[in-house]
Amino acid sequence: MSTYKSIARRGSLLGTAFALVVATVPSSMVFADALNPLTERSLLLSSSAPGYKDTDGSGNATFAPPGSGPNGVKTGETFTFKVSSTATVKGFSLQYCTEAAGNCQAPGNNTGDARVPDRETNATAKPNERSDLDVVGFDSASSAVAGTDFEILVDGVDQSTGWTTDTANVEDDAHSGALSGKQNFVRVVNATGTAINANQVVTVKFNASASKYITNPGEGSFFVKINTYSDETAAGQLPTTENNIIDGGVTVANVMTDSIHITTKVLETMSFSVGTENRDTVDLTSPTVHGTCDPILQINDNRLDLGNPDAEFSLETDTAWDVFSYWRLSSNSSGGATVYYSGNTLANTVGDEIAEVGATETVSTPGTEQFGLGFVDPSADTFDTELDDGAGGGLFNTDPRYRVPGLYTLNMETNYDEADGDKGEPGTPATAKFAFEKISNTEPKVIAQDNDDVISCSTAKMRYIGNIGADTPAGVYTTKINYLAAPQY
Description:
The protein is mainly beta. It has helices at 12-22, 27-30; strands spanning 39-45, 77-82, 87-97, 134-136, 150-154, 157-158, 164-168, 185-196, 201-206, 213-215, 221-229, 245-255, 260-266, 303-305, 314-315, 321-331, 337-342, 358-363, 370-376, 411-412, 433-436, 445-450, 455-467, 475-487.
């Protein structure tokens, strides 16, 4: 269903030169020059959680609604790209596959409910933690509402009126692997169409709800093949001939990651004092050994305990507590990438919340309710002494196998770039600043981006702060923070 215009008409000499290039570039790039390509392509998921997870940090689905960061079962997706051609577009097709080109196999690793032949059983996978990608509620019979359930925008202007959606299973029987039979092909069509000029930005957005959503695959990366069409036929069936394709033959990519789990407690306390000096101060915790450019390790299911370790990891009114996590991104997307976070503030199961810091970075203030996050410098971490060259420089300066971690081409958003420094303990003024917006649970917030280059081993160290007031209700507070990466191809 991803039809590519023939390159034969360019002549035998060009055909020979092109054949030599095929062996040296990714297969998805081979066809981009033969078509009018869609450029600056990006796919943002509302959640990068695997499609078998739909609960918050407490394991409660109520606080992980469709379209929120922790919910990988019922996600929304936003495709953004520039068109190359000036034309009236009457259709878009989006085909989800495990590879960027060739025979299509729908992504996922679920067993037991796929079509015959069923997917192979993965003996090493956890038996109840697998899922296949599936597009639900956007078939023609479900009557997804344009402008509500899905949106079409051109240069940010809503053009949703008149568009309808349809879905199908479009996998290739010739694929060597087992097929899922799920809805992995989405059509968005309009008999009248929308006039779009070359280099205008098109957004195709699917909004998640209880009945209309996209289920993430269980693990690994996936690709979405995109085409635009000049014709539309009955029942939402897009034409399959190359003469009706305007731009396309290209893909966007994404990958599933799990959440960072944070848990803390607020113990019952009471104190009363009179004085003339407030001694909110800080002392940094010991640095943590950081590795090479291998994938970041998941320890203890990515769970972090925030608080005093001598008091069951509880928060205190006179001391700020912090914990750290990492994320690392590599992508060959020449248009760079954007990284978002998504999640709620610390909350218990009866609705009590520790106040979010807000959109503007603020100094950590013990005695005042705060939950926030920010970047700290990962290169300040201590490295294994076995990698030291004996001169204080370390092999990281000379050995290409190792690289001191950092964001490199990615740029931190300014409200999250001052989390280094003292966090707040008696004796030293706090200097570290944090921000956090709980609306990110349904509207992911940008924390880092770059629009100009490939992303090579960008590593971020994230610091989380927790502060409470004397009147913060007692209870067990949790949250799950998702990090979402959207490369732009």
